[in-house]
Amino acid sequence: MKVVIASDHGGIHIRQELIALLKEMKIEYLDLGCECNASVDYPDYAFPAAQKVALGEFDRGILVCGTGIGMSIAANKVKGIRCALVHDTFSAKATREHNDSNMLAMGERVIGPGLARDIAKIWLETEFEGGRHETRVNKIRDIEYV
């Protein structure tokens, strides 16, 4: 598995925790930043990460900002992306099993680093169930616009 990870200024600390997790899990990753404490625009980090997943260069992507909301909205504008905003472990598992989410968004101002690591680990280890869920995911694919 290959994972792209990015954050804006509001998600730097949790992004660093998640990079440590990816290293521990021996998952290949690309860190797209940001590397500053000054305010930056989250779409400038969400779009390149989402494009890499949509183009098949990476299997999954993880995004972090203050709430996770902006990153998830921006990523979901890219055709082929199913970015789930998750702040609990149940949803992390469910969004992989039922929605085949290929991107995960979290908010550093909403959850702490320990929970973020737990969420990411579960999300990375959980497989898509397919079956009736595949039919639903395919309906989403069918209505995507160029």
What is the string of SSEs from the N terminus onward? EHEHEHEHEHH
Q: Which oligomeric form is depicted?
A: single chain
Mean pLDDT, rounded to whole units? Answer: 96
Return residue spans where pLDDT drops below 50 for at least 5 consecutive residues: none
What is the tally of beta strands? 5
**Structural class by helix and strand composition:** alpha/beta
Question: Using only CA atoms, what is the Rg?
Answer: 14 Å
Question: Number of helical segments?
Answer: 6
Distance between the termini: 27 Å
Main-sheet strand order equals 2-1-3-5-4
Largest sheet: 5 strands, parallel
Structure, explained:
Helix 1 links the parallel strand 1 (about 1-5) and strand 2. About 45% of the residues lie in helices and about 15% in strands. Helix 2 packs across helix 3. The chain is α/β, with parallel strands linked by helices and about 150 residues long. It is globular.
Fold blueprint:
Elements: E1 2-7, H1 12-24, E2 28-31, H2 43-54, E3 60-65, H3 69-75, E4 83-85, H4 89-99, E5 103-107, H5 113-125, H6 132-143
Parallel strand pairs: 1-2, 1-3, 3-5, 4-5
Helix pairs in contact: 1-5, 2-3, 4-5
